Amino acid sequence: MSAIQYRYANIDDLKIFYREAGAADAPALLLLHGFPSASHMFRDLIPLLADRFHIIAPDLPGFGQSDMPARGKFAYTFDHLADVIDRFTEIIGLDRFAMYVFDYGAPTGFRIAVKHPERISAIISQNGNAYEEGLSEGWTPIRAYWQEPSQANREALRAFLTPETTRWQYTHGVVNEATVSPDGQSLDNFYLARFDADDVQLDLFGDYKSNVALYPVFQNYFRTHKPPFLAAWGRNDPFFLPPGAEAFKRDIPNAVVRFFDTGHFALETHAKEIAAAIRDFLA
User: Fold this and answer.
1) Which of 113, 119, 152, 166 has CA 20 to 30 A from 100's CA?
2) CATH number of the domain that 131 lies in?
3) Could you read off the pLDDT of 251-281 as tens digits, one per residue?
4) Known catalytic residue at 264
5) Which of 33, 54, 264, 270 is catalytic?
6) pTM for the whole structure
7) Which of 47, 58, 42, 131 is CA-nearest to residue 97?
């Protein structure tokens, strides 16, 4: 049951890589990764949940082992990523599922939930934001690019794509850096070093403003449908602040909010604790 299988799905001539584990007839759980990572970020979580859930963890287009089409042939926007993953769920036969969303996975998954509320059985958001108060000052350079998409403002964002910054994202806010495996960040940096991958990511930085513009739409979905909701948050995240986790309770009063003493990539240090919280929540 806990063995992970590595597969590809063809989504309108786009090859999407995904990890799959658990019994096919078990409740489905879709795992959506964030920047600059891929489904390998769930390598510790999947075996802890596969005895109870049918787990599907795709790599978003342009990330990990999924295709990264040329920018002239594929629009790297969050609307487009969500459309591809929405189609992916249909092709592999997920008609009702819970979702675990992290970072970029949140605006991707929330778009799918807004479009198909009847398909969503529950949401776990691990540092996946949907409220203005959740955005830290770390977004200031990216906001500058939104407001003035000049070449100079775009070039300034390349600092987010260096190996040193990737490591910082993994270790900032962690109590003991020695507990953070180098494996995940090394893979992320490998993928970021591919030809044109930096400009793909800069395109997505620019389009992230579309996610903030949709926050009222996401919040209306939460208020209207009130999906069972767990916010599992690394409280020391330098990008998505604890008030963003607490804000979910404004629209879903029964939402469960759990904080863990770690940073942005909370699964690197707290996979067992987060898995236990998910098992309790979805029980």
Assistant:
1) 166
2) 3.40.50.1820
3) 999 999 999 999 999 999 999 999 999 999 9
4) yes
5) 264
6) 0.98
7) 58
